[in-house]
Amino acid sequence: MNIADSLRLASGLEKLGATKTEDIAEADIAVLNTCVVRQSAEDRAYGWLNRVGEIKRNTRPDLTVGLMGCLVGVKGNKKVAGTFPDIDVFLPPSDPEPLLNLVEQQTEKRSETNIVGRRHSIQDGELVLPAEDCGTTFVSYVPVVYGCSHACTFCIIPFRRGIERSRPVDQIVAECKSLALQGVKEITLLGQIVDRYGYDLQDDSNLALLLEQVHDIQGLERIRFLTSHPNYLDDELLRTVADLPKICDHIEVPVQSGNNEILEKMRRGYTVEQYNKLIERIREFMPKGSISCDVIVGFPGETESQFKDTCDLLSQHKFDKVHIAKYSPRPGTVSARRMEDDIPAKVKENRRKTLDDIQASVQSDINLQLLGNKEEVLVEGYQRDKWRGRTRTNKLVFFEDDREWAGNLVDVEIKWTGPWFMEGKLVAP
Ligand code: SF4
């Protein structure tokens, strides 16, 4: 979501004539887009603010410093504003307007009449890739629903990103079309609970209908969506994914724990049994599809036996990928206020490692079955003398070839597999 928000901001700045630089010494504007889902992410943001504040005070007093995202939140953050007085502008998640307005005002003050950049032919409301990324960016992200109205007890996102707000279909389709015109081949539709898209709109919109419309866009080759909540992945949606060829048969559906008492304490709204049935249903609709999942270890009070239930669930379902997080209490959430963070850091790390080992073995087995297969790969770029891309099921594949393949869909014969990626040979196009 932050990548998508940053793109929206870059697009707005690009329309005002700004260009991208990786070097802060060259920059007139520096923005940090933040995540606070875990304390470590928040700490990294403070480190950056200290460094940039120093640069601004010592050498670059004209540097405009922006802070965006969850550290700002929908209500602002007076504490951060007080601690870091060098920040000029605060941008709530998914809202680039405060900085764009400031840049416009600053430019007017400097009486620069030609503020419209070289790409002014692009229409208002259209999402533009920074010029440097045109022709080199083939995979992009479009938010379809902002915020979340669920109240999982560990989660800070509803506090920072606000309540659920679906975007109108025509806006989303227009953005996807403009990205496709700029060379993007794969788009991932995003939402904290993406499968609730349309629930808050006053029409019949839903994710399945939206996917059908995005599917019709010329030039787009692949469509993904994430993250799904187990309670809203209905048959209509699964059938749409199975039926429409451009929609990748890959589902991201977090479980968070394999134990019902922990799920209840997390207020996830489903049981392990219901989750198991859902996985069966997904596999019925797409037997060759892939499933990823998220898990939290060390939730308050999690016993060894409750943790073992999560191990068993992972071994049972053999997910293609699992994002494992160690529980980190976030101030203001129900779990931080009412539950003691009583699992020692070492135990959390051991549990994380145990799940990681299970998953490495599961993924090794799954990928090994692909040995010798011909897989369709969308080539995203070049890395360490090899082309890098992903299969429809979101598996990372590398292959060597002297020709230019970025942005192309190619067939690769899988010659080597490991748990985290595979290598292959280009099949003559
Ligand atoms: S559904 Fe996801 S985003 Fe919403 S509160 Fe729960 S974990 Fe957070």
Describe this structure in words.
There is one protein chain. It is built from 13 helices and 15 strands. With 429 residues, it is an alpha/beta fold. The chain folds into four domains: 2-109, Rossmann fold; 135-248, Transcription Regulator spoIIAA (2-Layer Sandwich), CATH 3.30.750; 277-368, Transcription Regulator spoIIAA (2-Layer Sandwich), CATH 3.30.750; 374-426, OB fold (Dihydrolipoamide Acetyltransferase, E2P) (Beta Barrel). The strands form four sheets. The chain has a five-stranded mixed β-barrel. Helix 7 (207-215) runs parallel beside helix 8 (235-243) and helix 11 packs parallel to helix 13 (345-368). The protein is globular and about 60 Å long. Residues 112-122 have low confidence and may be disordered. Iron/sulfur cluster (SF4) is lined by residues 148, 150, 152, 155, 157-158, 192-193, 229.
List the keywords.
429 residues; alpha/beta; Rossmann fold; Transcription Regulator spoIIAA; 4 domains; 5-stranded mixed β-barrel; 13 helices; globular; binds iron/sulfur cluster
Treating each run of at least 4 consecutive H or I residues as one helix, how many helices? 13
Helix content: 25-40%
Straight-line distance between termini: 35 Å
Strand content: 15-25%
Please give the domain count: 4
Query: Would you count the extended β strands for me?
Result: 15
Describe the structure concisely.
The protein has helices spanning 2-15, 39-58, 78-83, 97-109, 157-161, 169-181, 207-215, 235-243, 260-266, 272-285, 304-317, 334-338, 345-368, and strands at residues 29-34, 64-69, 89-91, 139-146, 165-166, 186-191, 222-226, 250-252, 290-297, 321-326, 374-383, 386-391, 396-399, 409-417, 422-426. With 429 residues, it is an alpha/beta fold.
